[in-house]
Known about the structure:
The protein is α/β, with parallel strands linked by helices. It has helices at residues 5-13, 16-23, 29-34, 84-102, 141-147, 166-170, 176-188, 196-202, 204-212, 216-230, 235-245, 247-261, 265-274, 278-293, 298-306, 309-319, 325-329, and strands spanning 35-43, 56-65, 68-77, 112-118, 157-160. The chain has a five-stranded mixed β-sheet with strand order 1-2-3-4-5, sandwiched between helices.
Amino acid sequence: MHYDDAALLRHTLAQPEHAGSLLRTILPRALANAVDWGSLRRVPGSSVDAELTSHHADLLFEARLAGGVLLIYVLLERPGDRWTPLHVLRYVLRVVDSWRLDHAHATGLPPVLPVVVHHGARAWRGPRTPFDLVDLAALPPAAQAILSPLQPGVHFLLDDLAAATTAQLCERGTTLAVRSTLLLLRFVRGARHHDPAEFVRRWLDLLRALWREPAGRRTAAALFGYMACQLESPCEQFASAASLVHEEARIMSDTIADQFREEGFRSGLAQGLQAGRAEGRAELMLRLLRRRFGSVTPAVEARIRAADIEQLEAWAERLLTAADPAQVLG
């Protein structure tokens, strides 16, 4: 499940097809035309500092570019941190160091393209390079002239979603999954008491088209999960909104509502995940399976109790759209 803005964006953009559709609208046209988008692949891992994961999420992609390799580092940021250029510099260096370890015999480095996707409440007003943070104004002009070119620097492309209008988001030519995600982030921002049906009715054609796509239900599950967490709406409103898309979406929404609304879910999830105890998550998974399908065989229960946190998280996503426990466990 995806609780916050950055996590939802990362979930959608983790698929190269979706990430590529967004990146093509951000890169300068000449560069976008030179990239082989069919070769785009996501590189696993994260460069974000552990203490900043509540503010940042990131993705790293690799693609072919005119016979060479291009690394595209995407930082998803909400608060508009003044120190973002410094964070980008540090993260890009980590990306390069990691690449060197994986290519020990290389004699050069691939170019890295840093991209910041800002999805805060207000348009970006912060610095764009580390040099903008360096205080040289009080120094003599001669010293400034010597020190200026010696300061660390990295530039990044900025996609300021907060500054874009709804019409501009719709016109960008992204996939249905990306467009739905961006529009939902815009709808939820500052709208805790909105009825989720408002969003669904406004973008019903888009959401129905997304639902019909082969992988669209997985994205829809993430979108409705995000709404369930972010909007303070009764379960009935949530289920009613989902049923507008498809009757099967209502079934999916009931499972999501169980996860987010049942008494004790949040504390149980926190104890199970934050303390690193898979058994807490396994108990929750078993309870949701029984609520969804009525019963669980001893073999299924044994597999769930033996699984680690990562596997349980993967099964939890399948639970939203699976027809039976066998589909959940694959």
